[in-house]
Amino acid sequence: DQQVKQNSPSLSVQEGRISILNCDYTNSMFDYFLWYKKYPAEGPTFLISISSIKDKNEDGRFTVFLNKSAKHLSLHIVPSQPGDSAVYFCAASEDFNKFYFGSGTKLNVKP
Amino acid sequence: SAVISQKPSRDICQRGTSLTIQCQVDSQVTMMFWYRQQPGQSLTLIATANQGSEATYESGFVIDKFPISRPNLTFSTLTVSNMSPEDSSIYLCSVPYTDTQYFGPGTRLTVL
Predict the structure, then answer these.
(1) B5, closest residue in chain A (CA to CA)
(2) Which residues of B touch A104 (CB under 8 A)?
(3) What is the domain extent for residue B83?
(4) 3-state SS string over chain B?
(5) Mind telling me how many Å the CA of B7 is from chain A's nearest CA?
């Protein structure tokens, strides 16, 4: 039973436009949420986090939104750049130790 | 941030053999985690490596297949034993540090 789901395996966006990556979860006890970017042959790179006491966290071009009632979070990238092309994973945890990962969304930003 | 290195970065192994993967962190951390990413799939937690006690394994993973050592607060090893082609994956260690979890670069294992 997958507790964290990313239902879009891929997303294609034009350079300069907004990329929106979505993530849904089932466990209402999750309190910490992370987004990672992963290039082939590399480990995941941390992008941005949010805790359940917030509904938005912003870091430069990256903003994460959390809707606890809907058990949904999203990552917005504005403006999108070709270097953003990678696989993006969301992850969730109850206690900041064991994280459950989504299956990833492959983002392609076209020049 | 925490800097994590892994050795080897990749290996090709024969069925039935074992491979030990090393994970080194540049800071002392209480907990270290081992994940697996099978081809085309997400990251799955294998076990938590606790310093001074036995590792805690997730459902579906056992110590005989994935023995783990944690001799100190900056180092851990994961052994993939009696390998089969189904063990072909990327193996990653991670540590919680300040406000997030940091991952090593991964070890890409191919079992023939």
Answers:
(1) A43
(2) 42
(3) 27-96
(4) CCCEEEECCEEEECCCCCEEEEEEECCCCCEEEEEEECCCCCEEEEEEEECCCCCEECCCCCCCCCCEEEEECCEEEEEECCCCHHHCEEEEEEEEECCEEEECCCEEEEEC
(5) 13
